[in-house]
Structures are given as structure tokens and as C-alpha cells.
Design a protein that fits this description.
The structure is a single chain. The chain is of the alpha/beta class. The chain has 2 domains: 16-45 and 292-391, Aspartate Aminotransferase, domain 1, CATH 3.90.1150; 49-287, Type I PLP-dependent aspartate aminotransferase-like (Major domain) (Aspartate Aminotransferase, domain 2). Helix content is 42%, strand content 13%. The chain has 15 helices and 12 strands. A 7-stranded mixed sheet has the order 2-8-7-6-5-3-4, sandwiched between helices. It has a 3-stranded antiparallel sheet with strand order 9-12-11. Helix 6 links the parallel strand 3 and strand 4. Helix 3 (49-60) packs antiparallel against helix 12 and helix 5 packs across helix 11 (257-271). The longest helix has 23 residues, at 291-313. The structure holds pyridoxal-5'-phosphate. Residues 41, 103-105, 129, 175, 179, 207, 209, 238, 240, 246, 251 line the site of pyridoxal-5'-phosphate (PLP).
Length: 397
């Protein structure tokens, strides 16, 4: 077979950190060992039946069999506008302030290319969602991760950004409830963000992937609920988590019309458009009964309680996440995120994601997802206790 050399752009892309983790986990699974998978972020519950039924019906319609309109069908864009008003009291114009794409991943990859030039910087948090550190490279730009800490609720302090970085910063990417820390944004923080954006003319993108999952009676805030936010930025929403529709590949963005226009124009060329039947299913999800969403949030909260209380009871002092479906646990002293994840995998057969994959400030943490059943989470705690890992000081190499 002839070997062809990929473009310099592809060669410059960093290797996917989590692919090597998957290899390591798979090598243990291949030995016939039952591994408890707390490392992934793929929802384990089925898509609600009414959404599947809407999709089946929509697939039969002749009008859904041609090319879909650029930027989303009128039906879905109007449903999104209604959804934002119903859920957040935020008014968005379906024509100019809404666009539809095939999953939030695509928007995260497209936005730096739609808004940045070579040499520009995209600001985000460290730790943060790994794609935020990769996608700006596609535009010849770079990422600066503002360090965030547990004592500040994993919210960034914009005053700490070095002046040289600030001058080159042309986009700010945030995500609350946060992957990986499980932190939630406050009203004050979002107001601060609007002021920062206004002062430096930096557009804001809020990735609201875990919009539906806030615990202890606290509902996640939409960035667009903040006065002035719609003038400064957009919110990216995915149906992957709220409605367990990860396999449908559908998401949308709402907010500032100039950013929406750039994103839509780029997406239309780079990705084409989302199949109309899937857009109909998404509209049915947004406007249909929302009981399944409340039940899903309650399920994740219950699982969080089971895992966090179980882990604390065996002597590991961990923080409980406020939202999302991830726990961000500090590794016991003497371990890095990788050595601790390896020890858990090899000795307890529990797979977690090492925090180093989420930025340099993740290196003392591991991320555990709440996407296994209550029984499996309890079993994970039993296995960790039985392995004795928590009672040892690791040997330093
Ligand atoms: C913060 C964050 N944004 C975006 C995504 C991807 O969403 P989608 O499934 O719509 O591509 C994820 C998925 O894990 C995520 O955690």
C-alpha cells in the first residue's frame, strides 16, 4: 500500500490523549477482566420513546428527503426560540439568532475557525474540555487556559490573564456545569464575564452541554440570562445529554447575531446540514414532555450521592460535583492523575479519566463519570477499598 503524507495541519494536531487511555483500558478488558467504566462521557440511558417515534414519523415525510435548508429548518429554529423562552425567559429571533449543527463538537471545532486568525488566542479554563485546547490550532490560533481552583469554585479570575495573552485574545470559551469539574456558574460570575467581554471586545461562547443537570435544587443558569450577554456572545446547546440523543448528532447555538452568522456560514461549507428528520426529532424533544429530563437529572444526582458518600466512607476525602454527570476527585498525595488512574485500573479494575488530559491544572485529579448503574458504582467503591490503594503511600520512581 502506498503511504501518503497528510497535510501539515493534520500533522500538527496533537494526538488524542484519550485514545491511548482507551487502549490501556481495552487491553485489560481483553484479558476477560470486568472493568467498571467511569472514564467515559457517553450517556447510558435510552433516548425517550416519544422522540424516537417523532423521528420515525419524520423519516417517512417526502419534504424531509431533500437537502435540508442551511442553518436549520424553520420548524426547529422556532422550537429552539420557544424552548429558550420557556426554560430561561430569554428571547431569541429564530431567523437571525439561532443556528443548527450536527452536535456541539462541530460548533466547538468550527467557532475558532469562524472567529479567529493565525496568532490569535482563545481563552478558556484549565482544566477544561479537551477539544478547547485542540480546535484553535485549526485556525492557526492557540489556547490559553486560565487556571481554575476548587477554592474558587473552578471559576476563572480574568484579572490573572497575563497582559500579553490578553492583547491577543479574540474568543472566550466557557462551560458550566463544567466538564470535568462538575462546577456551576454563579450569576455574579456571568455578570463579570459580560463586563470582561465588553471591556476587551472579546466574544463569549458558553458551551451549555450539561444545561439540564444541576444538583441540590440548583438549576444551571443560561449565560444569556445575564443582562448584556446576548450582545456579547452565544450559547451552544447539545441534545446529546439532556435528551440522551448523542447518536443523533444534533446541537444548536443561540445569541449574538454576528457570531451566529459566522458559525452558520462556516458550518454550511464545512459540514453541510443536519438531516431534516433529525431536526424534527429535536423539535419534538424540545417542545414535548420534559418529565424524562427531570428524571434523568434525579438519576444522576442519586448516583452522585451513592458514589461520593461511598468514596468518603472508605476514607477518600472528595468534593461532590454541583452539576453535570462528572465527579472530579483529587488523587491521594503521592500520585499523579495518571499513576492513580493506572493503579485504579490495574488493581481495582475501575477505569477513570486522568485529569492531565484536561489541562496542566488537572494533573492532581481524576474524572469519574456517573454513567454506570447504582450497583456498579457501589461495586467500584468496594473494589477500591479492597485494593488497599487508599491506605498506601505510592513508591516514587
Ligand atoms: C463540554 C462538552 N461540550 C460538548 C460536548 C459534545 O457534545 P456533542 O455530543 O453535541 O458533540 C461534550 C461531550 O462530552 C462536552 O462534555
Amino acid at each position: 500500500m502506498a503511504e501518503f503524507i497528510p497535510s501539515r495541519q493534520v500533522q500538527a494536531l496533537p494526538a488524542n490523549y484519550f485514545t491511548s487511555i482507551d487502549h490501556r483500558i481495552n487491553s485489560v478488558v481483553k484479558q476477560g477482566i470486568d472493568v467498571i467504566h467511569l472514564h467515559t462521557g457517553s450517556p447510558d440511558q435510552p433516548t425517550p420513546k416519544p422522540i424516537i417515534q417523532a423521528m420515525n414519523k419524520a423519516a417517512q415525510l417526502h419534504e424531509n428527503q431533500g437537502y435540508p435548508p442551511a442553518g436549520g429548518t424553520a420548524t426547529l429554529k422556532e422550537a429552539i426560540s420557544e424552548f429558550y423562552m420557556r426554560e430561561y425567559g430569554v428571547s431569541v429571533d429564530p431567523e437571525t439568532e439561532v443556528t443548527v449543527f450536527d452536535g456541539a463538537t462541530v460548533a466547538i471545532s468550527a467557532l475558532p475557525q469562524a472567529m479567529l486568525n493565525p496568532g490569535d488566542v482563545m481563552l478558556t479554563t484549565d482544566p477544561g474540555y479537551p477539544l478547547y485546547f485542540v480546535c484553535p490550532h485549526l485556525a492557526g490560533a492557540e489556547t490559553y487556559g486560565i487556571p481554575v481552583h476548587a477554592e474558587d469554585g473552578f471559576l476563572p479570575n480574568y484579572q490573572t490573564i497575563p497582559e500579553k495573552i490578553l492583547q491577543k485574545s479574540k474568543l472566550l470559551m466557557l462551560n458550566y456545569p463544567n466538564n470535568p469539574t462538575g462546577a456551576m456558574a454563579t450569576k455574579e460570575f456571568f455578570a463579570d464575564t459580560v463586563a470582561f467581554s465588553q471591556a476587551h471586545h472579546i466574544p463569549v461562547v458558553h458551551d451549555f452541554a450539561y444545561a439540564a443537570f444541576g444538583f441540590d435544587g440548583k438549576r444551571p443558569l443560561s449565560f444569556l440570562q445575564t443582562p448584556g450577554a446576548k450582545e456579547q456572545g452565544i450559547e451552544v446547546y447539545t441534545l446529546s445529554k439532556t435528551y440522551n440523543m448523542a447518536g443523533f448528532r444534533i446541537g444548536f447555538a443561540v445569541g449574538n447575531a454576528s457570531i451566529i452568522r459566522a458559525l452558520s456560514q462556516f458550518h454550511d461549507i464545512d459540514h453541510s446540514d443536519v438531516p431534516s428528520a433529525i431536526q424534527d426529532a429535536a423539535a419534538a424533544a424540545l417542545l414535548g414532555p420534559q418529565q424524562s429530563v427531570q428524571e434523568l437529572c434525579a438519576l444522576y444526582e442519586h448516583r452522585r450521592n451513592v458514589l461520593v458518600s461511598g468514596i468518603r466512607a472508605i476514607g477518600w476525602d472528595v468534593i461532590a460535583p454541583q452539576g453535570s454527570f462528572f465527579c472530579w476527585f483529587k488523587a491521594p498525595s503521592g500520585y499523579t492523575s495518571e499513576t492513580f488512574a493506572d493503579a485504579l485500573l490495574e488493581r481495582a479494575h475501575v477505569a477513570v479519566a486522568p485529569g492531565a488530559g484536561f489541562g496542566t491544572h488537572g494533573n492532581q485529579f481524576v474524572r469519574a463519570g456517573l454513567l454506570e448503574s447504582e450497583e456498579r458504582l457501589k461495586e467500584a467503591v468496594i473494589r477500591i477499598k479492597a485494593s488497599g490503594i487508599l491506605n498506601e503511600t505510592p513508591v516514587q520512581n
